[in-house]
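Example 4.3 (complexes with small molecules)
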Amino acid sequence: MIKIKNIEKTYIKASVLTPVLCGITLSIQRGEYVAIMGTSGTGKSTLMNIIGCLDKPTSGQLELDGIDVYKLDDDTPSSLRNNKIGFVFQQFFLLERTTALDNVLLPFIYADKYPADAIQRAKKTLANVGLEDRTEYLANELSGGQQQRVAIARALINDPDVILADEPTGNLDSTSTAEILEIFNRLNKEGRTIVVVTHDRAVAEHAQRILELKDGLITENGTNPNTENSDIH
Amino acid sequence: MKITKTIALSYKILTAHKLRTALCISSMTIGVAAVVVMVSMGRGAQKRVLDMIHDMGTNLIVVNAGHVTLVGGRERQSAIVTSLRPEDADAILDHCTSVIEVAPETSRKMNVEWESENLMTEIVGISPAAFRIRNIEIKTGSNFDSIENDTGKRVAIVGSVIVEKLFNGENPVGYRIRIGNAPFDVVGVMKAKGVDANGVDRDDRVLIPIKTAMLRLVRTTFIQKIHIQVADSEQLERAETEIRDLLRERHRLRDKPDDFTIQNQATLVQTERESARILTLLIGSVAAISLIVGGIGILAVMLTASRERRREIGLRRAIGARRRDIRTQFLLESLIIACLGGFSGTVLGILSNFLASKLGGWTALQSWDVTGAGLALSAIIGLIFGIYPASKASKLEPIEALRTE
Ligand SMILES: Nc1ncnc2c1ncn2[C@@H]1O[C@H](COP(=O)(O)OP(=O)(O)O)[C@@H](O)[C@H]1O
Ligand SMILES: [Mg+2]
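Answer. The structure with adenosine-5'-diphosphate bound is encoded below.
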C-alpha cells in the first residue's frame, strides 16, 4: 500500500543544512494501524508530510498504491491527496465561521466529480464520528474534541486508502483523546489503514505496529504486543 | 474543480468576513460610481457645446464693429463704433461668393412699457434673415417679413423673460407696447433659448425690424453686427478673408488696422469645445484614478487575505486543491467583490446623475453604454488586481502554509 525507499530529507535554511531523515525505507500494508513515535523535532511530521505527498523528499522513492508519486506531473500529488489520503492535524485546520457540514464537504470540491449525494454522505460521515447533531454548528462554536472529529470526518469523506494523523490528540484533553483514539480503533477494525504520528507512548500503544524515529532513522519495534487486534494482517 | 461550488464557497468566505468584504466592495462602488457620474457629465458638457452650435446657427461668421475683446471669457465691445453700416452687409452678400445670407443687427438697452408696467431690456433690430441664420424660433404669433422691415413697421417679438416680467405671463400677441416713446405691436413670442456663452440671457430681449430700429428708435446710420451664413463649413476661412478684404476696401483702411472684428463659428465655439474636451479628459483621468483606487483596495484586501489565510490555503492544498484551484478561488473572490462593487457603483452613479440634474441643474448625460462599460471595467479591474494576490496564494508551498502560526 505505502512503500518508501531510501527517503532522505535535508532542510536548508540560511545555508545551514539540517539533515532530518537519513535514508528511511519502510512499507505499510493495507489495513494496518501504525504509530510513528519519536521525541519532538526528530522529523515525524516531515516523514508524514512526505508520505502524504505534501512535501518532497530530498531523495528517495515513494510509492502509493503502486503509483510512483514523483515520477508524475505536479497535479498527481494533489489528486492523490484528494482521493487516497485523509489528513488529520494537531491543529484541526477547520475553516472558521464555516459549518461542520461545509468543512466536511470541502474535499468534494477538489474531487474529479462532485457527488450528487454529497450532503447525505457528509451527514452520514459526521454521524459516524458522533456529530449528527452538530452539522450546522460553525467550526469555532465546537469544542476541541468535536473539531477534531469534524476533521476526521473530512479526512474520511472521500473514502481514502489511508488516514495520516499528525499528533491528532496533541491539543486535546484526556476525555477527547480517548474519544479520538476510540474512533481510530473502530475505523481500523472496519479495515481502514491508519498512520498516527505521536510523541506520546500512550497514544502509540493503540497501534498494532510501532515505529521509532531517531536520528533520522527508523527502528522497527515489531508488532505491539498490547493490542488484541494484531491478528488483522 | 467545480466552478459553481467554488463560487458558492467564495461567497460563503466573503460573507464570513463581512467587514473586509464590505470595505472592499465600497471602495469599488465609489470608483465605479465616479466613472458613471463623471463620464455622464463629460458627455453632458459635449452635448452643451453641440446645442450651442445649433442655437447659434451653423456655418456662421459674425462681424462686429470695432474691437471685441474677451473680458473674463466674455465678449466686450469697445465703446461705440460707427464704422459698420447696413450697406456693408449688402455688399458682403453681393460680393463674397461663399456667403449665402447676411443679417445686420443693432441693439440698445431701452425702456419698454405696457399699461402700468415698464422695464429696461435689450432692443435688438434684426433683419428677417436672422430668423433663419440664427435659428430663432417663434413660439406663438409670427415673425416679421422683409416688407415689414423695409417699410419700418413698428412690430415687436418678445422673449419669454419679457412675457413673464412685463405681461405677467399672459400671451402678449396683439398687445401694444411702448419702446422708448414709440408704440409697437407685439406680433410674436420667441421660443426660449436660455443664457448664451457670454452670459447674456437671450430671452430678455425684444426683436424689432432693423429698419424700424434705425429709423425710429436709435436713429443712427451704423450698426453693431452682421451675422453671415456661409455655404458650408469648409468655406469659413475663405469667406472670412473675402469679408475682411471687402470691408477694408469699403472702409478705406489702407494701412490702418481693422475697424471691425471677424469671428467665425469655429473660433466662437472653440473655447467651449476646448473646455468640454479638457473637462472630459480630466473627468476620464479622475474616473480612472478612482477605479484604480478601488482596484488597489481589492489588491490590498486580497493580499492581506492571502497572508491571513495561509493556513486555509495549506489545508485546501492538503485535501487536494491544485495550485490553479487556489488561484481560481482567489481570482473569483476578487471578481465577485469587483462585480458587486461595480453593480452598486453603477446604481449609485445613476442615482447621483439623477439627483445632480434634478437638484444641481447639471447636465449629466446618462447613457447605457457607459453603464455597461462601468460594469465591464470593474470586472476587468477585479481580474487585474486579483491576479497578483491569487498567484501569490497559489505559489505558497502547502507545508509552509500549514506551518504558519
Ligand atoms: N521548513 C523547515 N526549514 C528548516 N528546518 C525545518 C523545517 N521544517 C522542519 N524543520 C526542522 O526539521 C526538524 C524536524 O521537524 P518536524 O518534522 O516538524 O519534527 P517533529 O514533527 O518530529 O516534531 C526540526 O529540527 C525542525 O526544526
Ligand atoms: Mg510534528
